[in-house]
Amino acid sequence: MPTYPCTLAEPRVSAALNRMFEAAARDDETAARLQEVQPYEKESLTARELADAVQEIYMPVSADGGRLLYNLIRASRPATVVEFGTSYGISTLHLAAAVRDNGTGQVITTEMNRTKAAHARETFAATGLDDVITVLEGDALETLAALRQPVDFLFLDGWKDLCLPVLRLLEPHIAPGTLVVADDVDLPDLGTYLEHVRDTANGYHSVTFPVEDGLEISCRL
After folding, report:
1. Span 89-103, pLDDT tens digits
2. At what angle do helices 11-24 and 90-102 cross, to 10 degrees?
3. Residues 81 and 190 sit within 8 Å (Cβ to Cβ)
4. Which pTM does this prediction carry?
5. pLDDT recorded at residue 35
6. Residue 23: what pLDDT?
7. Can you name the residues that pair with 161 across neighbouring β-strands?
């Protein structure tokens, strides 16, 4: 099998990413259709109910955001990458590709919705990256509570109002110098998280990277 200087360029990986990005481009159309078929109010649903209601929506990191994640992983060479919010696995593939190219490390990712988790696992197997990815299915506040090893890189892209609780859960495992990245800084539900990491009194130095809806890159002090 030929080798590639960047696993993102490996045909199985690039084909999977192209397919999923094309599907994700129809997210707005899909969301409108779901609301017509079975209207729902986000505020009235639990996190799990909402995840199930919108399981057809990809909600991915942007293409540029994914490439940035790849570069950050390559540069920092973390042993354990933790991701909150797999969805269909677009961001996870970028993280795993970087881990594979580093020649060391693992990705632990979480997904609440059973359908999305199943599709993601199929994609990881089809791309040959499943050996560096562990999918924790269920409520991340429960599945990640069992984590014992250090978290060397954290990517937060699940429900925005849960990003701060997940961060606080994992903070005992986050050493100084560790990067914590959150997607979608423009979404109001991320507000309390941003207040936390943008205040150095809480132990972070943070900067917003202007790509698509914005990535907040915070370094544990």
Report:
1. 999 999 999 999 999
2. 160
3. no
4. 0.94
5. 83
6. 95
7. none
Q: Which residues contact 123 (CB under 8 A, 6 or more apart)?
A: 16, 20, 88, 89, 93
d(CA 44, CA 61): 26
The answer to whether 97 touches 68, Cβ cutoff 8 Å, is: no
Residue tagged 């490390």 (tokens): 105
User: Which tokens go with 88?
Assistant: 């269909």
The CATH number of 7-12+58-220 is 3.40.50.150
Helices (H) and strands (E) in the chain, counts: 9, 7
Nearest CA-CA partner of 186 in 168, 205, 209: 209
Asked whether residue 1 carries a pLDDT value surpassing 70, the answer given is no
Q: What whole-number percentage of the chain has pLDDT above 90?
A: 85
What is the maximum alpha-carbon separation in the chain? 51
Query: Residue 82 pairs with which residues in a beta bridge?
Result: 108, 154
For residue 208, report the phi and psi dihedrals to the nearest 5 degrees.
Answer: -90, 125
Which residues have C-beta within 8 Å of that of residue 216, sequence separation ≥ 6? Answer: 181, 182, 185, 190, 193, 194, 197, 206, 207, 208, 209
pLDDT digits (tens, 9 = 90+) for 137-154: 999 999 999 999 999 999
Position 170, amino acid: L
